[in-house]
Every structure is written in structure tokens, then in C-alpha cells.
Design brief:
Length: 402
């Protein structure tokens, strides 16, 4: 199976998640599932953009000018009187501009006195005055349905009085590792054992993809243990496992998944990450997608990047699920198997327009990913790429375009 076909099948098979009402501080990165309009003008009143003096522009058309200071207004207060001819009111940034005044002279252009102030710079009307509604008009759409909420949009929601918003649910994704050889990070190793790496890396990759990881344990290579783990995990919105999808004697994903739901086992023509399982468990009316990733530490993260991340973004209501790509000049030759599409871990230098590999590319060498800022996407059909060639680069550090 080709990688593109596998991804298309996966994207067609994942259910969109329902929308939920959340506090806006919990909405970062989620997709808005309603149209939010301004409840009133923003800013709600005419206010000063500077610390200075609110005056009548006619009085400061020529400088220097002397004006009588009639009081002071701070942010959060309401003016108690109007500014008349020959008068000035000290004003702080964000304070309402009093009636009568039509311009603000910044404090740096005055002698900053509180009885009689000398204005040293002629100031035209409207200077440093922010008008009501200059950011948003009441009734205007502030954030459209389908928008991925970033810091600026969270601020916009707050500015129109929305403490909560309707967004597509953040997927809660169960993640577990399978293998009799695995022990927890932090536990001592007996002969033949290795540390469970994938549960930690995949839980972190889930978080980077906007999901909430539900970190389960290490599941032993036995049908009963796997059955119990999958049943429990089916309370989640999706399940990600690693290991046990090859054709070894103790790889039980296939029989157990077929018993609890439907699953396809694919040999994808890529390296790293050839074996991949995708299917769904049924939990009442719910369909819970299951991604069975290969056990090798690099393969599991690369297949997560290629297949699981886009699926999770689609479940979260994103249209655009592909990372940005670019072309770069290869700095070294790469030998590869002609029949496979290879995703080499690379270091892309955008200013030079070049890319090189991170060194040894074995599927167990996690440093190859740790040093990388991109994947070099080398197509099927070629056995060798030469230094100096233009190659395709997937910019895995950059978010999908919105
Ligand atoms: P498997 O897909 O279960 O055959 O595993 C393939 C290789 O990946 C084996 O060398 C496993 O020991 C290793 N492996 C599997 N799961 C993990 C894990 N969670 N952390 C680190 N290595 C793993
Ligand atoms: Mg295994």
C-alpha cells in the first residue's frame, strides 16, 4: 500500500468529534464551532492612547500654549466634567476622553504641570484618541466558525465578553505500549529488557497534535492482556498503540482487534514504518479509531507524524492537516531501497536552502529524530539521490497552514 492511499483511507475513516462548550482558557488550538459576534463596540468608549492632556485642538493649534488644568482622569474612571476653552484635563492611557476635548497632547510635549500646563507642540485634532468601535463594531463577526483559535482569537473572544466558547472537542486518546521486553522509564533493567520509550514519546506527540493523552500502561504480549487493555481504552476518542503489529509469534494485535472490531493491517511501502494497523473498535454507538503503530522507536513517531497527526487534526475539525513542504538542495548523497518511499530525518537550513540527513538512519536510532527539524521525502523508484539535487522536505516543526 502507498502512503498517500493509507492516509486517504484513514482520513475517510475517522469520525468528526462533537462540539463542546469550554472556558476560553481551555480553547487554545481548538476549532471554533460557532460564529462569534461583537456584543458591543470595542473599545466601548472613546479613550486616550497616551498619557497626557485632553484638550480642545483649537487651543493647541499653535505652540507654545498655556492651559488651565481642571482635573485628572485615570483609566477605569468616568469624567465628571467637560473640557472648556482654555482648559486641559490630565488623562491616562485607556481613560475615557472627556466631552469637549477632541485631542490628546502627550505628556512629553508638555511641562507636565498640574495647575497651568504649557503645551510645547502644536497638536492636530484626533491625536492619540481611540474611537469607540475602531477595533470591532457591535454585531460584526469577530471570529468565524472553523477558525483555529490562537492567542489573538482567545483575546478577541474575551474582548467581546465571551468567557466560554463552543469548540470541537479535544480528542482524548488512550496510548499504550505492547511488549514483554518493556519496563517503565525509571525502573531497573533486567537482562533482555529495554525501556518503554514509545509511550512517552507518543503521549508527547499526542499533546503536540492538540490531543489529551490518556496514558495507559505497558501491555504484555498475551491475548488476554491486550483484549482487556483495548476494551478499557475504548472509552477514549481514539487509541494509539505501539508494537505487536508485525508478524512475530507474539504479535497479538491482529487476532484481538479482529475480535473486538474491524482492522486492516497494511504493509506500507515506506521506511521507516512499514507495518501499520488501522481500524475501529465499537463501543455501543461510538466508533473508536485505533492506530497500531510499529514498535521501533523511530518508526512509531514517524508513522504518528504521517498518519495519526493528520487524523487527529481532522477529528478536531481542521481542514488543512498537511504540514508545509519546501524544496531544498541535498548536501550529501543518499542511498535507498528503490521500491520504498523513504522519510529521512533531516536538518533543513532555510536561509541556505539546503538539507542534510541527521546521520545514521536506523529505525531504532531515536537520535536521528531528535537532531532533525524536517523529514526528507524521497519517492519510490529511485535507489540513490545525489548531492546537489533538489529534494522534497516536510517541515515538521511548522504548523499546518490555517
Ligand atoms: P514489535 O513491533 O513489537 O515487533 O517491536 C519492534 C521493535 O521495537 C523491537 O525491537 C521492540 O523491542 C521495540 N519496541 C517495541 N515497543 C517499544 C517501546 N514501547 N519502546 C521502545 N522500543 C520498543
Ligand atoms: Mg513486540
Amino acid at each position: 500500500m502507498r502512503a498517500d492511499d493509507a492516509l486517504a483511507r484513514i482520513l475517510a475513516g475517522v469520525p468528526p468529534l462533537p462540539s463542546v462548550d469550554v472556558a476560553i482558557l481551555d480553547a487554545l488550538g481548538l476549532v471554533l464551532d460557532e460564529e462569534v459576534v461583537a456584543d458591543r463596540d470595542v473599545p466601548p468608549f472613546r479613550n486616550s492612547a497616551m498619557d497626557g492632556y485632553a484638550v480642545r485642538a483649537r487651543d493647541v493649534a499653535d505652540a507654545p500654549a498655556s492651559l488651565r488644568v481642571i482635573g485628572e482622569i485615570a483609566a477605569g474612571r468616568s469624567p465628571t466634567r467637560t473640557v472648556g476653552p482654555g482648559e486641559a484635563m490630565r488623562i491616562m492611557t485607556g481613560a475615557p476622553v472627556p466631552e469637549g476635548a477632541d485631542t490628546v497632547v502627550r505628556v512629553e510635549d508638555t511641562d507636565n504641570r498640574s495647575d497651568v500646563v504649557t503645551i510645547n507642540a502644536a497638536t492636530p485634532p484626533g491625536t492619540a484618541v481611540r474611537h469607540a468601535g475602531e477595533d470591532l463594531r457591535r454585531g460584526e463577526t469577530v471570529v468565524a466558525r472553523g477558525t483555529v483559535l490562537r492567542a489573538a482569537e482567545i483575546g478577541l473572544l474575551a474582548s467581546v465578553g465571551r468567557a466560554r466558547a463552543r469548540v470541537i472537542k479535544r480528542p482524548r486518546v488512550a496510548v499504550f505500549s505492547t511488549g514483554d521486553e518493556l519496563v517503565d522509564a525509571g525502573a531497573p533493567l533486567a537482562p533482555g529488557q529495554i525501556r518503554d520509550t514509545n509511550r512517552y514519546s507518543l503521549a508527547s506527540a499526542l499533546r503536540e497534535a492538540g490531543a489529551e493523552p490518556w496514558v495507559r500502561g505497558i501491555v504484555r504480549d498475551s491475548p488476554d492482556a491486550l483484549r482487556a487493555a483495548l476494551r478499557e481504552a475504548s472509552a477514549a476518542d481514539a487509541i494509539v498503540t505501539s508494537g505487536g503489529v508485525s508478524v512475530g509469534d507474539h504479535d497479538y494485535m491482529k487476532p484481538i482487534m479482529s475480535e473486538l472490531g474491524t482492522i486492516d493491517f497494511w504493509a506500507i511501502a515506506i521506511r521507516p514504518g512499514r507495518p501499520l494497523a488501522f481500524g475501529e473498535l465499537r463501543d455501543g454507538d461510538r466508533r473508536v479509531p485505533v492506530f497500531g503503530l510499529p514498535g521501533n522507536v523511530v518508526s512509531s513517531l514517524v508513522t504518528f507524524e504521517l498518519f495519526v497527526r493528520p487524523a487527529l487534526l481532522r477529528m478536531q475539525g481542521r481542514d488543512e492537516v498537511a504540514r508545509p513542504r519546501t524544496k531544498a538542495r541535498l548536501l550529501e548523497p543518499i542511498e535507498k531501497i528503490a521500491s520504498l518511499r523513504v522519510f529521512a530525518r533531516g536538518i533543513h537550513d532555510p536561509s541556505a536552502g539546503t538539507v542534510r540527513t541527521t546521520g545514521p538512519q536506523g529505525s531504532g536510532i531515536l537520535r536521528s529524530l531528535s537532531l532533525a527539524n524536517c523529514l526528507i521525502d524521497l519517492p519510490e523508484g529511485r535507489a540513490r539521490h545525489e548531492a546537489g539535487e533538489q529534494v522534497d522536505v516536510i517541515l515538521t516543526e511548522q504548523p499546518e497552514p490555517r
